[in-house]
Structure formats: C-alpha cells, structure tokens
C-alpha cells in the first residue's frame, strides 16, 4: 500500500467543525446477539436522539472474499468527538471494515459515510480530514524521517509544525535517520506521525501500540489522550483490551463480521455479568462474548 492511500493530506484543524468537544452518547438500550453455537446476550448499546450527521456512519455493510464473509451487515455510528474502540478476535473483520472506512475497499452492499462523504468515491475530499494509521504501512525507505514528514506536512493546510510532530511521537532523536533503519516500533510511531500530520478531525488507528515497548506505549497513549481531549474523533482498532478501556468512551465488539456488542466498557462488563456471573473485567467479557475463553484446565486425575 502506498503512502498516499495509507495516510492523508489536507487540513481540519481544531475548530474547523470536524471535531467539537467530546460528546459520548449515554443511555442503555439493547442489542440481541444470536449465533448457532453461543448463547444470546443482551447488551446495552448507546441510545437517545441521534444527530443528523455523525463523524462515521456505517449501515448494513457486507463484504465477501470468495467463500468468506468478512462483514455481514455491519452498522456503526461514531459521533463527532467520540472515541470508539473496535475489538474482535482474529478474523472478525476489523481490518476489512477499516479498509472500507478509509476507501481502500468497496463494500458489496451497505453504505459508509465519513464526515458525510463516501470514502471510496470521495477520497480526495477526505484527504487531510481523516488521518489513518494502518498496520504494515510502507513508506519511502530512502528518505529520512524528517524528509518524509516534511513531505506529508506539505499536503496539509493546518499541519503540526515538524518539531511538534516529531515530539508528539517521540521521534525527535531519529529525525535524521533513514526510514529503512528504523526499528519496528519507531516505524509504527512514524506511521502515527503521518496520520496526525494534518490535525485530522477523524483518526483511524489500527493497532496503535503493537510492537511498542512498555515505555513507548505509555507515552503514545498519553499523547493520544491529549489528542482525544482536543475533540478528535477516534476509531481505535485493537487487540489490547486495556488500551481500549483506557482510551475509549465506547466499545464495538465485532465477531464473525457482525457487531455483537456496542456499549461503554463499564456497561459492557455489567451486562455481560448478568449472563456470565464470573465476568468482572473487560477482558473476561471479551472472552465470554466471543466464545474465545480457553477451556478450563483439566486435572488428569479427574479423567
Ligand atoms: N484479501 C482477502 N482475501 C480473502 N479473504 C480475506 C481477505 N482479507 C480478509 N479476508 C478474510 O476475511 C475475514 C476477516 O479478515 P480481517 O482481516 O478483516 O479480520 P481482522 O478482524 O482484522 O483479523 P486480525 O485481528 O487477525 O487482524 C477473515 O476470515 C480473513 O481470512
């Protein structure tokens, strides 16, 4: 995937209307879940009056790859300024959904609107208004970090100054290093810098801190908190339940290409506990709801 598709140019700084203050939607409702091999679970889902124009609106989206259904009718709404975590087991459809959200894949059916635009059709118009950090992004290896960031900064109307951007992702000391010489974690932070360069109103982060050491992870999370508190809408795709719990207002749980839960972290655990009394943590709720909990240890002497 090239840089231009991985990351965006343009503008949308704070105060342009793309990201008013954070405004998570309160209030319980229910979502039913039925699968052939698991119990039906009722979970709270946000409710209440919905504004006309959300930052991200996904409606009835399906995507098939030959005999695999990656997305099977996904509905998702992310309000302006909301921070939503997208969780799900391997193969749940998270990356496929992200690819559709950033215009890299067209759904077979359903509609997607990001800031009111169709990401597949209106990619140019969304450049700079949506920042995207994808797993495994590929950049121009021969450029230095500074050169690459200067290039991306030039795409935007109201970008971060270079020094601020480098500091934001802890790469000041690596500004003169060629991209090919970066470690995996440094490369990941460079991808984040590129996603952030134009101060986007909507940020899609796919595995924000995968591959980062604990110190780098903590620093990046603190910085994302700052960006979140400025009112940026964030969709955070992650396997890291702790990270999602810390950063997100709401969690959308995807399994087998379907949304099986949509609730605040606390509401999700509480609702899950009603059917799985042992569940006390988000980790536990994830395992119970997705049916991925390991089988209890069996004592051979019992057999
Ligand atoms: N290009 C493709 N061709 C065929 N099948 C695909 C393709 N991309 C994804 N799939 C399939 O679609 C399903 C969803 O994959 P996807 O990568 O979206 O899941 P994911 O939730 O991101 O998984 P992970 O957590 O492992 O990254 C999987 O069954 C996967 O094998």
From TrEMBL:
InterPro entries: AAA+_ATPase, ABC_transporter-like_ATP-bd, ABC_transporter_ATP-binding, P-loop_NTPase. One of its GO terms (molecular function) is ATP binding. Residues 1-53 are annotated as: Disordered. GO terms for biological process: response to antibiotic. GO terms for cellular component: plasma membrane. It is a peripheral membrane protein. The keyword Transport applies. Keywords: Antibiotic resistance, ATP-binding, Nucleotide-binding, Transport. It is found in: Cell membrane. Residues 56-281 form the ABC transporter domain. It comes from the Bacteria. Pfam families: ABC_tran. CDD domains: ABC_DR_subfamily_A. Residues 1-18, 28-45 have a biased composition (Low complexity). This is ATP-binding cassette domain-containing protein. It comes from Pseudoclavibacter chungangensis.
């Amino acid at each position: 995937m090239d840089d231009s598709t991985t990351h965006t140019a343009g503008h949308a700084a704070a105060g342009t209307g793309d990201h008013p203050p954070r405004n998570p939607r309160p209030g319980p409702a229910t979502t039913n879940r039925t699968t052939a091999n698991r119990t039906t679970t009722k979970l709270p889902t946000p409710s209440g009056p919905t504004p006309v124009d959300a930052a991200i609106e996904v409606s009835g989206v399906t995507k098939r790859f030959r005999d695999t259904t990656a997305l099977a009718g996904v509905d998702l709404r992310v309000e302006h300024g909301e921070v939503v975590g997208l969780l799900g087991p391997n193969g749940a459809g998270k990356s496929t959904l992200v690819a559709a959200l950033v215009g890299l894949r067209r759904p077979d059916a359903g509609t997607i609107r990001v800031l009111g635009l169709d990401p597949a059709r209106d990619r140019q118009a969304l450049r700079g208004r949506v920042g995207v950090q994808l797993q495994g992004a590929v950049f121009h290896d021969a450029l230095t970090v500074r050169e690459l960031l200067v290039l991306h900064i030039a795409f935007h109307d109201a970008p971060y100054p270079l020094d601020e951007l480098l500091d934001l992702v802890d790469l000041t000391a690596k500004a003169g290093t060629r991209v090919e010489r970066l470690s995996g974690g440094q490369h990941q932070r460079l991808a984040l810098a590129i996603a952030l360069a134009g101060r986007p109103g909507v940020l899609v982060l796919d595995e924000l801190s995968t591959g980062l050491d604990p110190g780098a992870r903590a620093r990046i999370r603190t910085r994302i908190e700052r960006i979140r508190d400025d009112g940026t809408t964030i969709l955070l795709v992650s396997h890291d339940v702790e990270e999602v719990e810390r950063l997100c207002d709401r969690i959308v749980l995807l399994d087998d290409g379907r949304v099986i839960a949509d609730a605040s972290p606390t509401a999700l655990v509480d609702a899950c506990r009603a059917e799985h009394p042992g569940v006390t943590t988000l980790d536990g709720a994830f395992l119970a709801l997705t049916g991925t909990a390991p089988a209890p240890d069996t004592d051979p002497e019992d057999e």
